[in-house]
Specification:
Layout (H helix, E strand, L loop, with lengths): L1 E2 L4 E2 L5 E2 L12 E2 L12 E2 L4 E3 L3 E8 L15 E8 L5 E6 L7 E10 L7 E14 L2 E16 L9 H8 L2
Parallel strand pairs: 3-4
Antiparallel strand pairs: 1-2, 2-9, 5-7, 6-7, 7-8, 8-9, 10-11, 11-12
Length: about 170
């Protein structure tokens, strides 16, 4: 559900999975999510950008008027720039007057790494800010988006030395 007053996106609670039957529309299991945009004619026309494995950033275009002559000409459309949390489906959007570029994501400051845990795994945090280029120039969307990723040893799988294995098999 998109709240056009608060400029937010919310999703009723669900479980990742697949409904038992394709016709089962009353279940809370979902294989993904979708959104019905609130404005007639609003469409995603650019690429969806991912930040880590949790955040999606994209823009939509809204024509001046459905069926109006020149409805897709320069300067006739407006843009909504969305920031969505993939696991929950929730997020927010920022309206922009006129057409705009795809979102620009710029890292702010240096990455920070946590201390390693006993397995050798740690977390790297990066903070980004979102911008678009519109008819008035560079427009900051005033979002500080922090993304965390796992780094370091991610498993304890043993890697065998090929030469040692070969020498044991052929003494």
């Amino acid at each position: 559900v998109i709240d056009t007053t608060a400029k937010t996106v919310t999703v009723e609670s669900f479980l990742w999975g697949r409904p038992k039957k394709d016709s089962d529309s009353k279940t809370t299991e979902r294989a993904g999510w979708y959104v019905d945009f609130p404005i007639s004619g609003e469409r995603v026309v650019g690429l969806l950008q991912m930040l880590g494995n949790r955040k999606a950033v994209f823009n939509t275009q809204i024509p001046a008027a459905a069926g109006a002559s020149g409805g897709c000409s320069a300067g006739s459309a407006t843009t909504n720039s969305y920031l969505i949390d993939i696991p929950s489906g929730g997020g927010k959007y920022t309206p922009i007057d006129g057409p705009a570029s795809p979102p620009l994501l710029l890292q702010i400051g240096a990455s920070t790494d946590s201390s390693s845990d006993p397995t050798g795994r740690s977390t790297r945090s990066k903070t980004f800010e979102r911008f678009v280029i519109g008819t008035t120039g560079l427009i900051p969307l005033k979002d500080k988006i922090t993304v965390k990723e796992l780094i370091g040893r991610l498993s304890w799988r043993q890697i065998n030395n090929y030469q040692d294995l070969k020498n044991k098999a052929n003494p």
